[in-house]
Protein 1
Amino acid sequence: MDARFTDEQDEIRRTLRDLLDKRCGPQELRAAVDTPAGHDRTLWTALAGHLGLPGLALPETCGGVGGTVTELALACEETGRTLAPTPLLATAVLAAPLLLALGTGPQRAELLPRIASGDLTAALAVPGPALATALALTGHDRRGQWAGGGRAGGVQARRVEGGWQVYGQADQVLDGHSAELLVVAAHTGGFARSRVLLFLVRGDAPGLTRVRQTALDATRPQGRIQLRDTPVELLGDEAADALPALARLGDTAAACLAAEAVGAAGRVLERTVEYVGRREQFGRPVGSFQAVKHRLADAYVQVQAARSAAYYAAWAAAAPAPGAETAGSLALAQALEALRRAAAEGIQLHGGIGFTWEHEAHLYFKRAAGDELLFGPVHRLRAHAADAAHVFEEAGA
């Protein structure tokens, strides 16, 4: 295996970094998260129209660039550096792969070119705080009980004359309040014979109510969606099994999330090193004290190890190999820990200013904590990976 990046991959990183440095500074970030959508639409137009970001991992036949998860993860690393408020994660990482994997020919032809061009944003909606379970990151529910189990609650689907209707609620949908297309996981078939199917819900569908939620991480906006006998379109056909598709999506999502967290961790660590080199105490730079050097060195090693794990997870998701099934969960766990450590050190070593609302250090810490709430926690990511790899099973058992 050649672990070096290609010239095209390096160019993606360089071009994206240049654009984000110019268009997504701290002031622009705060202004964007205060908008009703929670992201900068002009920045998204630039990322989609000039760089083709949402179509990086989509085939050229669907209007995409024809890249792999690796290119998408590298893009996420750069957007993570600036905490760029865009619908990239919800649209390109979580929704588009499901449309590509399960969609019928007409569905792919209609939706994927619009996603690749940035004209259409999408979001994946699962009931309750069950996104990590649905993606098989912290557990593997072969019956899809997280979707409601066929009982009251969750999201239920039923056949009606001429199609399908869904009824229920999902509370933590990334960009769910603003996405023009929702991919909704719902139970159907009754309790005894229930199964999970995925449905397409247009943003203007009757019976759909959406509202933005207050989230710990304002740079990762979430919405609550309510569905009241909403007419929907089945994604693919009834023979398609949604649970394995969601589990495969988990590998891609974990790699991209890990890369994003690594980008954020690297950035906050850079800012901290820069600051302690300027700030003086007792007549010398704070960064010259041995204790400070040790703390930053430990954080640096942790970030670099997480970066290596994230790159391997992206490669494993792009070219699945035996024994690499747990790479995504482990990389995500390591990256979230590295981001939390780097952000905490940044707040502490910035002194009094690091604790203020006006400084950006707290945004990076909230990203680490918010992602762990959505996709973790870290100990469950590692425990599930250990179970999947049969680490604690006795030999011959």
Protein 2
Amino acid sequence: MTSAPRDRDIAVVAFAQTVHRRTSEELSEVEMLMPVLHEVLDRTGMKTADIDFTCSGSSDYLAGRAFSFTLALDGVGAWPPISESHVEMDGAWALYEAWTKLLAGDADTALVYSYGKSSPGSVRDVLTRQLDPYYVAPLWPDSVALAALQAQALIDAGDTDEPALAAVAARNRENAAANPHAQLRHGVPQGDYLVRPLRTGDCPPIGDGAAAVILAAGDRARDLCTRPAWIRGIDHRIEAHGLGVRDLTDSPSTRLAAERAGAFERPVDTAELHAPFTAQEIVLRMALRLDDGVVVNPSGGALAANPIMAAGLIRIGEAAARIHRGASDRALAHATSGPCLQQNLVAVLEGEPR
């Protein structure tokens, strides 16, 4: 069980992100990241030296060079020596590692950041490196083709249809109109089929971006934030690697992670879902038992901005930010990694009663 014990409550106390763009070719990863780190620290009045633990998420495959995260770490400031770790995953999993560090009492504050530049290459081809190397990768299906398989499975099962998928896309991007950081902040035509049954509008934009959050425990969190977003539970689970042994119309790992995180104990009012493709939101809504009374992706979600390796952390940050400003009392945040919702993380965040 991974729900936090009551005597060691941990909260997200600050969140910052870039204005996500189709390309930031004039900036290095470090130059893109540094303003975000300065902003998240400024929100708490902290300095780098005040952070007990630092954890980052990024992808060497995406950057095209080994140990690329060390360049960003140099920008953060690794001297004098700091307590630091890195995950080759979305920053949501870096947050999970930092949460466990604070939960164990080894730190009281943590800086978590992640970033990704998708613009220099073909994300569809890069993500094939996640596939089973013996049975699936030799067929060379890209990420959009696999998402289309999942969408068609949902349609064949009678769980959705193309107009319903278009409505998901429209609602997310309409929500993004109020999000100054979103890459797509206006209506986007569904367009032509990219891979049937997915049209261009059913797919996420390609872009660059970064995000960062600060975690703090107990009274330290209350000192740093007027209304902390307390992490009441967090868990992550993974599906079988072989796509052929999975039911693509369901997400048992999401359901189990939500159960272990305590998401079903009481209703949530907000859900930030990491669903880069419209059909994946349908799958997640069913797995998480979200009804029409839950506000889903008020930020616009990954259909409005999908910086690889940061989009999951952004879902947690957006949910926390709504609690900080009083727009939500109990929120669910979800992050995913791998093809067709292969690995899923669920966090439940709460604000103190008003």
Protein 3
Amino acid sequence: MTGLDSGAEPAAQAPQTGRQAHAGRRNFMRKVFFAGGATAVATMGGAGAWAALAADETGATASPDPSGAPTGGPGGPGNQSITEDFFGLTTDGKKIDDLFTVHSEGVATTPVIAAANAFLAGLSATQKSSTQFTVHSTEWRLWSNVDAYDRQGVSIADLSDEQQELGKALLKSALSADGLETTERIRRINQAAGEAIDNTDSFNEEAFYYTVLGTPSATEPWGFQFDGHHLVINYFVLGGQVVMSPCFWGSEPTEIEIDGTTVSVCKEEVKASLAFINSLTEAQRTVAIESTAKSNESMKAGAFADNTVQEYTGLRGNALTGTQKLKLIGIVEAFTGRAKADVARARLAEVRAHLNDTYVTWAGGIADDSAFYVRVHSPVVWVEVDCQAPGPLAGAYGASQGSGATQMHVHSVIRTPNGNDYGKELLRQHYLTSPHHR
């Protein structure tokens, strides 16, 4: 049995300090699947869902909600929780059907299965019990990019050197070289910035958590999550298919000197976004740019915003030239390129199939150093790049907190609208169609 809870919420523990500052987690209450009743079962699909729920009741991981909330800060509301069943991002509260189907996309998932099994095998029984959840657990949805948030799973700080190598091998099996390097740089900058403001209890390179959802398998659905400040990866696997979303990539600052070398991150999405907006004609920019002013925070579908309803706005893809379409794809590629090549290839095929129905919305300036916000939104992809105001790490780069949006503090996210974040739509279809679940 993994990740058991008692069903009751104990009092919050006193905060820890030092290297293990983020290693403690609050206990979580059972909620969504049991409170959701028929709605939750309908979402999961048929008798297989009832069997899955029964497994939770008889010993598998409950679907928890947080007993507490993060203290707030850029990137999300202070009172973060799950208050409704998962539905997914939509334009009007209604999902578009038949966008995603269970089929082999030729993705080689054997390496990530092996790496996940090795990682789990390397954990102690106690570590494993707090790290492995059922594939339909709401642990998928309990991620946050803010620092002051109690996460589940096992943190890098919890792991021995050997276990840390197994965790890194799991990330390496799922990510491209660029993706792995991006995760490492975000963590290193977080540590360096924490040192610069003398607060490594909150900002360090070890407060990043692994959880495994389900049992790694070549035929059954499962996945893993890597979750910490400015860095969240959700990775769902079903046979030869992978859904790597939602993923959050960010940093404050986006550039800092570490041991005499300038380390930068999140530059690809900024550069690609500016290349796109500057490829437009003046008439096209008039449609795409909703405001020349940039607010301190513009992101709409960050943490705890799984069911965001947002109508299409801005410039539509069918109004673009071939060259402009390539630059639009370039924004998405900055994110998909952080997965292995076969995963990225399958994802981009989906995006290209709906390119004419893709909308781009912009706010802010268009100069190389301008702060801006861009949203790329289609039936199958949602990308946001948001230059935010200096936050709690402002002192690390000589800025004043809240002094105006800047490229030195970037938040970005990629999602899959219409119900397939976390592979939820594929999971639903699997439960509906697989003979052993019916």
